[in-house]
Amino acid sequence: MATEILMPALSPTMEEGTLAKWLVKEGDTVKSGDILAEIETDKATMEFEAVDEGTIGRLMVAEGTQGVKVNTPIATLLEDGESADAAPAAAREPAAQPGKGEASRDETGEAPDRAPAAARSAVEAVSTPEPDEAPDWPEGTTVKPMTVREALREAMAEEMERDETVFLMGEEVGEYQGAYKISQGLLDRFGPRRVVDTPISEMGFAGIGVGAAFGGLRPIVEFMTFNFAMQAIDHIINSAAKTLYMSGGQMGAPMVFRGPNGAAARVGAQHSQDYAAWYAAIPGLKVVMPYTAADAKGLLKTAIRDPNPVIFLENEILYGRSFDVPQMEDFTIPFGKARVARKGRDVTIVSFGIGMAHALEAAEALAKDGIEAEVIDLRTLRPLDYATVLKSVQKTNRCVTVEEGFPVGSIGNHISAYLMEHAFDWLDAPVINCTGKDVPMPYAANLEKLALITAAEVVEAVRKVTYR
Amino acid sequence: MARKPSAPGDSPSDGGAQPNVSRDELLKLYRDMLLIRRFEEKAGQLYGMGLIGGFCHLYIGQEAVVVGLEAAAEEGDKRITSYRDHGHMLACGMEARGVMAELTGREGGYSRGKGGSMHMFSKERHFYGGHGIVGAQVPLGAGLAFADKYLGNGRVTFTYFGDGASNQGQVYETYNMAELWDLPVIFVIENNQYAMGTSMKRSTKSTTLYGRGEAFGIPGEQVDGMDVLAVKAAGEKAVAHCRAGKGPYILEMMTYRYRGHSMSDPAKYRTREEVQKMRDERDPIENVRSLLLTGSHATEDDLKAIDKDIKDIVNDSADFARQSPEPQPDELWTDIYADA
């Protein structure tokens, strides 16, 4: 039976082309791989090969013809012994549009309840109506002051005891005892199989970490700072965050990428960036940025157990600060649950990470002038606790966000957009985003201070939105 | 440490590397390579009809590499590769139907239509993708081997990449760590001579790629990648090295792709004659076919029966890939996160 040779799509975007030249004539015998014609697309002239063997019956489109639509029959191919008059295959294939299969015809029969699912935004997908106001630990639990550094170390040690597949890898994590001493003592306790010193190869060891997670382990990949993780960001995003989706749920990367993030002190532009908003933009990642030692411990334990890739953003300045940490057998904090660090009725200040230090300092100063600020520590940026923010803003009718990162495309921008959409009628003033300045971090002490967010700027923003 | 370099245009590799192979084995190699060839031809056809979209990178010409190495693998061994991945999936036993339906972006595909040609996986068959970023699969493959060594399960990972990826820095970061930690990983460089449109000559002054492993202490060799028996023999040697706990091994497979880099590549960077010469003189499938016939291991009729069988499998996969429905709209929102 004669088959039709159709005008091919020769690029992802081609809809029509010019049949520049025939390289066969009627009656020629062809086999798979022989060039039949030259076809001009918008980008190039392509050779069009036969995929079946047979004899060319009729050439149906003359050479030089422009605007030949994809899937138009351009020739017939005869099997052995057929004549050129043989009717082309009776049931001609319906001409499919490029990039659109036959199954798309079923779209008209789409169930109506599916449309909203497809149309919903990421924001709505994660919102919950009522905030979870349960305390992080039961009342009466003994607490002990502990530095953020000790809290992080305890979290890792406890999880390594609990699960044999958890291991730590990174630069100087073992014999050097950690560049910032987070992993101090872990090599002695767990040995070199589970505390792995790497060469200075961020892209390579991040990729090996992701591969190890594919292979059934639970890696903790430490970056000496997240500034160096830019060398590895392809593996964090393309390899770790997207694989579960691309594999249709078959496999993903259960692992933690952790290390100090943001400005330390006087280390200049290349060592002082806050990446919170970058990673929080990526579906498939979870993003944690704790402020207190209790949160550092409880959230890192949750991160290590989570079956998804988690970005855990620490802060060098906070490592040495002490906070109360509950003394419990197995203390964890769930993701997506903000902490109301201070109650108030006049304005909502939303922050996370070291921004909380400025937010709380500002709230203290404002209280002296009779302005009661409610301060919310988001703790996790993905998932983000929209419900707690929304409920607070519905009470205070004003909001200021505080973070160290750059202003464009910040977490504050995102929260402002969310409040515009969901709390427009409750707002008595525009939301103000307090952020780091829109400049690379300078080295000079006075300029660095100007580039960073300060409590004074938060106070000023609150005065603006409260008109006081 | 190293064998004499050979180009894919040279005569078949010296007899020393040729293993004894049974008639059944030879027939299986023929069949497995033919399945890839016919499957890829059909994929090209469906692409031309607009049923497959985006980028589509065909493996035609390189079939002996994966088929030969799979013959050297054991159940449980892992493999990972780039975006030119259809052949690897078929060779490790993934179903033609599921692969083709992923190419058409349908529910019946291995990733339920969410991955496409470049992003497919099968945990069951130990196939870890399907990666679209050139060179990224190299540390990922070493990471799989890291996990196997950590778990002490005796498995080996085949990590495939091309001559193009060989110029990515992360490959050498990985070589260093793989040798430092004695990871059971075989780095398979599929040297098909062209990184998209850039020939080896225009991208490097190195004459061999396996030789770059020497700087890290990794042994390796160049293999005639058009000769499936030479590939199998080299694969067995590399597997033995890895399983003995001696660390990684590099196999540089000298091969050739007949088609363009992707479907939209007019391939003007090489002559038609160069391609035709390779097809006429070095075709891996024709080589085995003539071995079968001249050695009287099979008759023309035996091979015709295999051809027909393969054609049926491929046609069935294409029918399935066209009839399988597109994913439901709410599939958009699944598999972003695993349940904690």
Describe the 3D structure.
The complex is a heterodimer of chains A (468) and B (340). Helices cover 28% and strands 22% of the residues of chain A. By secondary structure, chain A is an alpha/beta fold. Chain A folds into three domains: 3-84, Beta Barrel (OB fold (Dihydrolipoamide Acetyltransferase, E2P)), CATH 2.40.50.100; 144-326, Rossmann fold, CATH 3.40.50; 339-466, Rossmann fold (3-Layer(aba) Sandwich), CATH 3.40.50. In chain A, the strands form five sheets. Chain A has a seven-stranded mixed β-sheet with strand order 11-10-12-13-15-14-20, with helices on both faces. Chain A has a five-stranded mixed β-sheet with strand order 17-19-18-21-22, with helices on both faces. In chain A, strands 1-8-6-3 form a four-stranded antiparallel β-sheet, with no helix packed on it. In chain A, helix 4 links the parallel strand 10 (166-170) and strand 11 (195-197). Chain A is elongated. The N and C termini of chain A lie far apart (87 Å). Chain B has 340 residues and is α/β, with parallel strands linked by helices. Chain B has a single domain (21-319), classed as Rossmann fold (3-Layer(aba) Sandwich). In chain B, the strands form two sheets. In chain B, strands 2-1-3-4-8-7 form a six-stranded parallel β-sheet, with helices on both faces. In chain B, strands 5-6 form a two-stranded antiparallel sheet. In chain B, helix 6 links the parallel strand 3 and strand 4 (185-191). Chain B is globular and about 50 Å long. The termini of chain B are far apart. Mean pLDDT of chain B is 93; it is low at 1-6 and 9-17. The interface between A and B is large, with 84 and 82 residues.
